[in-house]
Design a protein that fits this description.
The complex is a heterodimer of chains A (about 750) and B (about 475).
Chain A (H helix, E strand, L loop, with lengths): L3 H8 L15 E7 L5 E7 L1 H5 L3 E5 L24 E2 L5 E7 L2 H10 L1 E6 L6 H6 L8 E5 L2 H4 L5 E9 L11 E7 L3 E6 L4 H12 L6 E5 L13 H15 L3 E4 L2 H7 L6 E9 L5 E13 L5 H10 L9 E10 L13 H19 L3 H7 L19 H11 L2 H14 L3 E14 L8 E8 L5 E5 L8 H13 L6 E3 L2 E2 L14 H27 L7 E3 L2 E4 L2 E6 H10 L5 E7 L4 E3 L4 E3 L3 E14 L4 E11 L7 H19 L31 E6 L25 H13 L7 E2 L4 H8 L10
Parallel strand pairs in A: 1-12, 8-30, 10-11, 14-15, 18-19, 28-29
Antiparallel strand pairs in A: 1-5, 2-4, 2-6, 3-5, 7-15, 8-13, 9-10, 9-12, 11-20, 13-14, 16-27, 17-18, 17-24, 21-22, 22-23, 25-26, 27-28
Helix pairs in contact in A: 6-7, 9-10, 10-11, 14-15
Chain B lengths: L4 E5 L2 E5 L7 H8 L18 E7 L5 E7 L12 E3 L11 H9 L8 H14 L5 H8 L10 H11 L10 H9 L10 H6 L16 E2 L5 H4 L10 E2 L8 E3 L2 E5 L4 H6 L1 H6 L3 H5 L5 H4 L4 H7 L5 H8 L3 E6 L2 E6 L4 E3 L2 E2 L6 E8 L6 E8 L7 E12 L2 E10 L6 E2 L1 H7 L6 H14 L10 H19 L7 H6 L3 H4 L1
Parallel strand pairs in B: 1-5, 6-7
Antiparallel strand pairs in B: 1-2, 3-4, 3-5, 8-9, 9-14, 10-11, 10-14, 12-13, 15-16, 16-17, 17-18
């Protein structure tokens, strides 16, 4: 099975935005952005910059012919700042010049004076000031206030998780070309061509039919290009429209780090109550989401936090409150997991603390409270096809966790300065856009007269292998070899009004639409074959041969297509798919928001160097329920990659901002992500056997996001290792657990309260 | 117009009058339209722009190094062979490319060409083709998609059955051609390189120009501006590390990788090679120089730290004038050196270690590899029957410049080592330093970490000295003392 994309990648022939050959009259844009977190613009002096040789124009908000607005969910975000800036990195002006260097040099010549205003970076401070993006969201089930009385153990605490930079290796970028009849063609490194089309339309004032948006492939997205590609495409489009020349805007790494939003930092308060058996009776949690300066996708991310606040556990009484808070940071945005990891980290912290208090292992409480078939989630849906316990038990057996425990105990007895720790991490992740209307997709299939096939959908290939999966689907239906099938770049003129490639759902949604379109064409072709063979029976295609009653007819795929063409048959089909049976009432916060859930259990093992405060992640293992994986190689790669990205989030990846707002970790020498040495020696993710999923395409399950959350176990594994060295240490649940936090925890003076 | 820079790119000669300070990455992508080489960070921290540079030697062989093309100015390419992803065999994928595809080691594809170039460099230049060395060779290549496991699988699967001649050199090269890792035109490269005339330096240009050694720092600091600066390019030293009059002598223009490979150092200071494995990445070590790391005077410079402890002495040269300065007196303040603008570091001399010496280097950074230290520290000592004959300790990241811990070292000299003495020494070290809170850690953390690293030195020297964690807790928490 050949994944054609990989062949081009391996030869360095794949074309990303910055690789496109441009016409000789192309210009290059660079962004002048705010250096302060909050301020009124007193003056903006462009004179010196305009005098720089090669500079063609400098555009500000005044040059926008349409609306200076790119907020998709809430209209609260300008493309270019007007009178005020609300975060450091906020775009103020665009320099368009003959070369990128020239544009960047001119950017340095722009002078701006700010009247500095108070900067708020902390979501709790924003809460006290009442700076809400949306009104509070509350999910509840049962009655927590009544439940506390029945609890033998109640623990309370705080959990904090930090921001995370996507670090897609290809930075944000776009090229816009003026085309015939006052139209624009925009190529963008975006996960959401339709969202780009809307944003460009809004900013330029052109109707959507005059804007063609194409995304051929991305050098990584991870959510960072779901909403935030819009502004850069709109800037390129605005420049192209104004100057009537092609304009390229590709961010440097530093610009990308400074300007774009990250995973939302959360600060959360939890309260968990359990009975004497360790059954969780009640859970209250309050999430303070640091949304940054504008809404972006924060409201949807906030909801997904709530949807996942009880992770893989059944909790009869839940009250979960979530606040999305406006601060002076870049607008935080989608990132693999989309709010769920933050929610899961809070309940895992609560369980860890409860286990500590009860003198049991956290895994005892985790296992005891796993969801069972039919158990209710706090939002009305109940667990169907629940594989929480199944994956847990499979992990115990497959990875011989009893052995791991014995081995670790022995190691810890024999070593004074090195301690091992391990932790379990069960996951449960809902699949669907929680905004029901987004669960739709279209597919356009052409069979060309030579028998080759071209497929267009809204799925954007960004490394997750969706192109290959789509080819497999078409190949299975038509029974033709993969090399006959080409996946076209996502393009708004071929498939319109599409949802972003996000929520792990691209293969599901686009695959289902494709299945439908292929089946329609197959039906036509087989009818044509029956006519030609003069039979009432239905022929079938196997391996490009037309068979009738299991006998070869001599007719091949190419013959059939040629014949259908000669018969003037339509060899093109378009189909539309919607996920059936999902709905959600946003007032009651009840419904059936998810098509299905993905389950799994991870086990993480670490060794802590208690002298230096450094560690190695020895292993991350998981039993993952992927249904019947459509492509096990791709799915394994997704699972492994997600898990390592998660390990980074919880350990070394730390975003730091100066008190006035500018990003301090604004280079790859300051912001570190996992490298080959960090990657655990044992990274072993296996698929749960004998699983299926009638709701997924060909019984598969979505794979992109869920495995990210196995990594949460690393925090608790490290905490356990600390306690092996100093049993009395009680550490805050603050991630990332950097080397610094570890060492300070290991050698804290005050024995019981470590603010690490 | 500039004097032409001539080199071989893949199989073809390139002659260009572009500015010699133009970043090689930009030249490759924009002038040669070879867009397989990617820009990921422009600071040598991701490896997406990795290319190979082959330098011919008198014996006709060409030695290849993987480098970050974002940190290389075009001018240094003159007379060299540049290999980009496009220069690999066209007809069929190499066994490594095939293995990557088979094992799922490619996802978005953006880091892939750089990764493949690093592995090709490994195959061309590494003596020991073990999986460990292969991993070391790709440690400077960041992949955000795969989590690396599938890449490691690919390395393992092709290395176990590659048909590559383990003997480095010409036979290796032949076997790489035969097995489809590199194209046959590699056979012609030595001849093509010989035909390139030496670079025509402009004789009239006598202006004082800044010296440019490896460029791994200046190309980052002067991003975009470097093309406007007229550098005086220094050539990487081919001179071997040697012993003269009781001193190990290292040319300042030695690459870090050449220091690691030095036979003399492997004998006299066998610990050094693994210490330097924590310096940058393979690509950076193939570029960064000893002199550059010292002249840079970064407070956390690893080489400065190591050679402070090893009692290094610098030779500075200005025309005919030559003087020697102990490294300990070289660093005066933040980025301030005991060196005039026209003086150049030419040599570093280290006393040949006495038998029975102990050396140790500790470095803690956010990520173990390819990262800047929060704190680093080196110790060089000799003890006879537990009594310290001499000791030198250096610490980085805890002062505005690479710090020699003078008080701590002199306190320990002549002492009989006990856990109590080491505790005391650690306290002195903490009082000698003045860390600041920054992106690499808080002041409190750095103080604590320095103490821990001093313990680590002595634990390695003699584990009995720090026989129980209780000893560590006896030392007071640093924030309470100072």
């Amino acid at each position: 099975m050949e994944n054609i994309d990989l062949l081009y990648h391996a030869r360095g022939e794949s074309k990303f935005i910055d690789d496109l050959r441009l016409p000789s009259d192309a210009l290059y844009a660079a962004i002048f952005y705010s250096s302060t977190g909050h301020g009124r613009i007193l003056s903006l002096d462009l004179r010196d910059a305009l005098l720089m040789p090669g500079v063609k124009a400098i555009l500000t908000s005044k040059d926008i012919p349409g609306e200076n607005q790119i907020g998709g969910v809430i209209a609260d975000e300008t493309l270019l700042a007007e009178d005020e800036v609300h975060y450091a990195g906020q775009p103020i002006a665009l320099v368009v010049a003959e070369s990128p260097e020239c544009a960047r040099k001119a950017v340095k010549k722009i002078k701006v004076l700010f009247d500095e205003l108070p900067v708020v970076l902390d979501p709790r401070e924003a809460f006290r000031k009442g700076s809400f993006i949306i009104p509070p969201r509350i999910f509840s089930m049962g009655n927590t206030s009544l439940a506390w009385d029945n609890c033998l153990v109640i623990v309370e605490g705080r959990a904090e998780t930090g921001a995370q930079e996507h670090l897609y290796l290809e930075t944000q970028g776009s090229v816009a070309y003026p085309t015939d009849s006052g139209s624009l063609k925009v190529t963008s490194s975006t996960q959401a061509p339709t969202a780009v089309q809307r944003a460009v339309s809004r900013v330029t004032g052109l109707p959507m039919n005059k804007i063609e948006v194409e995304a051929s492939r991305l050098g990584g997205g991870f959510g960072g290009k779901e909403d935030q590609a819009n502004s850069f495409a709109a800037m390129a489009a605005l420049s192209a429209l104004k100057l009537n020349r092609p304009v390229k805007l590709v961010l440097s790494r530093q610009e990308d780090l400074r300007i774009t939003g990250k995973r939302h930092p959360y600060s959360s308060d939890f309260k968990l109550g359990l009975d004497s058996e360790g059954r969780i009776l009640a859970y209250e949690v309050t999430f303070y989401q640091n949304a940054g300066a504008s809404a972006d996708l924060s409201p949807a991310i906030l909801d997904r936090t709530l949807f996942h606040c009880t992770n893989s556990y059944f909790v009869p009484n839940v009250k979960a409150t979530a606040y999305s808070l406006r601060t002076n940071l870049p607008p935080m945005t989608a990132f693999r997991g989309f709010g769920a990891p933050q929610g899961m980290f809070a309940i895992e912290s609560a369980i860890f603390k409860a286990a500590e208090k009860m003198g049991v292992e956290p895994s005892y409480l985790q296992e005891k409270n796993l969801l069972k078939e039919g158990d209710a989630f706090p939002y009305g849906q109940s667990a169907e096809g629940c594989r929480a316990k199944e994956s847990w038990l499979a992990a115990l057996e497959t990875f011989e966790t009893g052995e791991i425990k014995n081995r670790i105990e022995k190691f810890n007895r024999e070593n004074q300065f090195f301690k091992k720790g391990f932790a379990f991490m069960p996951i449960c992740f809902g699949i669907s856009f929680t905004n029901a209307s987004m669960n739709q997709a279209g597919a356009l299939v052409h069979i060309y007269s030579d028998g080759s096939i071209g497929i267009s959908t809204a799925a954007v290939e960004m490394g997750q292998g969706v192109n290959m999966k789509l080819r497999q689907i078409a190949s299975a239906i038509f029974q033709v070899s993969l090399d006959k099938i080409k996946i076209e770049p996502a393009n708004t003129t071929r498939v319109a009004n599409t949802s972003p490639t996000a929520a792990s759902a691209a293969a599901d949604l686009n695959g289902k639409a494709l299945e439908k379109a292929c089946n329609e064409l197959l039906e036509r072709l087989l009818n044509a074959a029956a006519l030609k063979l003069k039979t009432e029976d239905k022929p079938v295609i196997i391996n490009e041969e037309i068979l009738l009653k299991e006998e070869k007819t001599g007719l091949k795929w190419e013959d059939l297509v040629k014949m259908a063409f000669d018969e003037r048959m339509d060899l093109t089909s378009h189909a539309h798919h919607i996920t059936p049976g999902i709905y959600f009432d946003k007032l009651l916060n009840q419904g059936r928001p998810f098509n299905y859930h993905v389950y799994g259990t991870g086990v993480v093992e670490v060794t802590l160097d208690c002298l230096r405060g450094t560690y190695t992640v020895d292993s991350l293992k998981a039993i993952h329920d992927s249904g019947k994986p459509l492509n096990p190689l791709i799915d394994r790669g997704q699972a492994e990659g997600a898990a390592i990205q998660g390990l980074g989030w919880l350990t070394m990846e730390e975003i730091a901002y100066a008190s006035k707002g500018p990003l301090l970790s604004d280079s790859l020498s300051a912001y570190k992500v996992p490298d080959v040495y960090f990657s655990p020696g044992e990274l072993d993710i296996r698929f749960l056997k004998a699983s299926d999923n009638p709701r997924g395409i060909f019984n598969s399950k979505a794979i992109g996001e869920p495995p990210f959350m196995y990594a949460i176990g690393v925090f608790f594994a490290l905490y356990n290792a600390i306690k092996e060295f100093r049993p009395e240490v009680r550490m805050d649940f603050t991630a990332p657990l950097t080397n610094e936090r570890l060492l300070l925890a290991l050698y804290s003076k005050e024995k019981n309260t470590v603010t690490a | 117009m500039y004097n032409p820079v001539i080199f071989i790119c893949n199989g073809k000669e390139i002659r260009t009058s572009a500015s010699p300070t133009l970043t090689l990455l930009d030249f490759i992508r924009r002038e040669l339209f070879l867009t397989g080489t990617k820009e990921g960070c422009r600071e040598g921290d991701c490896g997406a722009c990795t290319v190979l540079i082959g330098a011919g030697s008198d014996d006709g062989s060409v030695s290849y190094s993987a480098v970050n093309s974002c940190l290389i100015p075009l001018g240094t390419l003159h007379g060299k062979h540049l290999l980009t992803i496009e220069g690999l065999p066209k007809d069929a994928l190499s066994p490594f490319q095939q293995a990557l595809i088979k094992e799922g080691g490619i996802q978005c594809g953006f880091c892939t060409p750089g990764l493949i170039m690093s592995v090709t460099g490994f195959l061309l230049s590494e003596k020991d083709l073990s999986i460990e060395h292969a991993i070391e060779a790709i440690a400077g290549n960041i992949c955000r998609c795969t989590g690396y496991k599938s890449i490691k699988r690919a390395l393992e699967s092709f290395l176990c059955d590659s048909g590559i001649n383990p003997e480095a050199g010409e036979k290796r090269m032949e076997s790489l051609i035969e097995n489809g890792f590199i194209p046959p035109y590699f056979r012609n490269i030595p001849e093509l390189l010989r035909s390139i005339p030496p670079f025509a330096e402009d004789p009239e240009d006598t202006k004082l120009k800044p010296y440019f050694a490896g460029g791994t720092d200046i190309m980052v600091q002067k991003q975009g501006e470097a093309t406007d600066i007229n550098f005086h390019f220094l050539k990487w030293s081919e001179e071997r590390v040697r012993v003269e009059d009781g001193f190990i002598v290292l040319d300042a223009a030695l690459k870090v990788s050449s220091i690691m490979d030095s036979a003399v150092l492997k004998t006299c200071l066998p610990q050094l090679e693994s210490c330097l494995g924590l310096f940058g990445s393979r690509q950076i070590r193939n570029q960064a120089t000893l002199g550059g790391n010292l002249a840079n005077a970064s407070p956390i410079a690893d080489l400065a730290n190591i050679f402070l402890a090893l009692d290094g002495r610098l030779t500075l040269q200005n025309g005919d004038q030559v003087r020697e300065v102990p490294l300990r007196d070289f660093f005066l303040g933040y980025k301030r050196l005991s060196k005039t603008e026209s003086e150049r570091i030419v040599k570093l001399k280290l006393p040949v270690p006495e038998s029975g010496f102990f050396f140790n280097f500790e470095k803690v950074s956010r990520r173990k590899h390819l990262d800047v230290a929060s704190v680093n520290s080196s110790v060089y000592m000799k003890a006879i029957d537990g009594r310290v004959k001499f000791i030198h300790i250096a610490a980085g990241g805890v002062a505005p410049y690479p710090l020699y811990l003078k008080e701590t070292s002199s306190f320990l000299e002549g002492k009989s080592l006990t856990s109590g003495i080491i505790l005391e020494a650690a306290l002195i070290a903490q009082s000698e330093c003045s860390p600041i809170s920054d992106i690499r850690g808080s002041e409190e953390y750095k103080r604590l970490l320095l103490r821990q690293l001093i313990f680590a030195h002595f634990m390695k020297f003699n584990p009995e000295l720090i026989y129980s964690p209780e000893i560590l807790f006896q030392a007071q928490a640093p924030s309470k003392i100072f």
